[in-house]
C-alpha cells in the first residue's frame, strides 16, 4: 500500500449534498447537489443579462439562495469566460453563460467554473459537477453533509452587507445633455468596472400597473438598474420626476428621490420646507393679489429687495430692486406676465458672494466661495462668476447638512449667504453641476458619488422570519 505524502492535501469526504459558499459572489451559504454525472457545475440564477464592452463582457444576475424565499434576493455580477450549450438529463439543450468563482467548503477553497441557469424548481440552489471536484475528494453517495454545516441565518446578519463583494453595477444617468457632469459620472463609474448608461429622460415611457411596473426606452423595456442618478433639467421637472417615481416603484435606488427634486424646484415650497425645519434663510414673502404689494414688501423689510421667479434657475429671473419704487415696478411687471415670484430681503454684507456646499450621502464633501462678475449681485458661475475653495464654519456645515436632509437628497448643492446673524440658505439644488466645484477644490466629486452608490446598493440584510432558518433538508 502506498503511503500518503505529508504534503498531500487532506482527504475531503463529500456526501451527495453539501453546504458550500461562493464568497466572490456574496453567497455565504448554499446547498449544493453533488453530481459526478454532470461535467460542469451550475448555479441557480434569474434576471440574467450581459453588460459592458464586447471584448470584456460581464454578466449580472440575481439569486434566491434559500429555497422558497423569493423575497430574499442577492444581486451578483461576474466576468463572462465562455458560453456553452448544456444538455440536461431530459434532453433539452440550453445556451448558458459560464463564470468562475472561488468555492469554499469548510476550511478549503478553490476556483471553479459554473454555468448560470434557472433552477427555481430544484431543491438545491447549486449543482457541483465533476470538473469542480478535486482529486482528493471522495464521494459518499449514500450520505449527506459530510462537511461542516452552514446556516441560512447569515442572510439576516448585518455582516452580510460588510462582506459583500465589490460587484460591477449597472447605473443609469438620466440626462438630456452631454455636459461635464454627465461625462464625469460615466467616466468614474466605468473606471470602477461599472456599466453606466446615459438615458434621455424625455424618451422614457412607462407601463403603470400593480404587478409589473416598467420603464421603456426606444421601444424596449429598460433593464434592471442597481442605481439611477437623476440629472433632471428644470424645464422637464414634472415629467422627469414621474420617471423617477416609476423607478422608485420598481425598487431601484435613486440617488435623489422624486419628492426631493420636486420640492427643490418649487421655490415657494422649498422655503416653506426650510422654515418648517428651522433652517436659516433670508426673510421671504409671497402673495397673489396686486393689492398686497406694499404689505408684501413691508413683511420683508426695506429696499433693496430681491424679486425672484419661482421657476428661476442659474440666476435667471432674479432681480435686485434697489429702491421701493423699483421693487413696485418689478413686481407689477411680473404680475402682468402672470408669473409667480418671491420677494426677499437683500443681504448686503454678503457683497455678491455665496458659498456652495456640496453634500453627498449626508456629508459635506466640498465647498467653494462664488463671487459674481463685475457689477452683478448674482454669483452664479453660469453668469460669469468665479469660484475658489473656502473653509466653512461648523455652523455653515451643519446648516448645509440639515438642508439636504430636509429635502431627503443624496446629492445636493446647498447655497449659503454669510450674514451678520449666521448662514442663510438661498437655495437647495437637486442637480448640482460638478465642473465648478471639482475645478475649484481639485476633489474627485464624481468618485465620491460612486462611493455613496456602491455603499447603498450592496445586498442588505433582511429580517428573519419563521421558516428562514435551515428548515427541512429536502
Q: TL;DR of this structure?
A:
Its cofactor is Mg(2+); Mn(2+). The chain has 474 residues and is an alpha+beta fold.
Could you explain how this protein is built, in words?
The chain is elongated. Helix content is 21%, strand content 33%. Among the domains are: 12-160, Beta Barrel (Cathepsin D, subunit A, domain 1); 170-262, Rossmann fold (3-Layer(aba) Sandwich), CATH 3.40.50; 283-346, 2-Layer Sandwich (Dna Ligase, domain 1). The protein has helices at 159-162, 180-191, 237-250, 258-265, 267-276, 293-300, 324-336, 394-406, 435-441, 445-456; strands at 12-15, 17-22, 27-34, 41-44, 46-51, 58-63, 74-79, 82-87, 93-105, 108-117, 126-128, 137-140, 170-174, 195-199, 204-207, 214-217, 220-221, 227-230, 253-254, 284-285, 305-309, 318-321, 341-345, 353-360, 363-371, 386-389, 411-419, 422-429. Residues 1-9 and 461-474 have low confidence and may be disordered. With 474 residues, the protein is α+β, with helices and mostly antiparallel strands. Helix 2 packs across helix 10 and helix 3 runs antiparallel to helix 4.
